[in-house]
Amino acid sequence: MENVVVLLGWKEGEGLDPKQMKAFLSTNVSPTNEKILSYYSKRWAVETYFRTAKVYLAMDRYQVRSTQAIERYLTLLMIVSVCCIYDSRGSLTDGLLHYRSLKKQCMIEYIYYLAQSGATLAQI
Q1: pLDDT in tens, the chain (124 residues)
Q2: Per-domain residue ranges for the chain?
Q3: Which of 27, 31, 50, 62 lies in disulfide reach of 35, CB 3.0 to 4.6 Å?
Q4: 0.85 surpassed by pTM
């Protein structure tokens, strides 16, 4: 490829172990090495958010066709994310796991109260 910058990074003192090395590729050759790494460090938070949204919020399995539907869906994902991050004081994954645990607990309580009131298994 022409006009590409490849930056290789590793922790100081660990030698050139390929398993510890990180590689960064940029097709924009004008910024300095430090600026390219700065862009990647900011982008990493975005990448991890979308990975978490795909794994835990089924973002990759939901299909919509219109721009408006996509915007609404992404807005809902962002609201859920903010609530989970706020509730867990900083971790989206911890917040999601907490809410899933609460959901299971509520479901068990609901089934318990129905059973206590004499509901049959078919009714539950």
Answers
A1: 788 999 888 888 877 788 888 888 899 889 999 999 898 888 888 888 889 888 888 888 888 889 999 899 889 999 999 999 898 888 888 999 999 999 999 999 999 999 999 998 888 8
A2: 33-116
A3: 31
A4: no
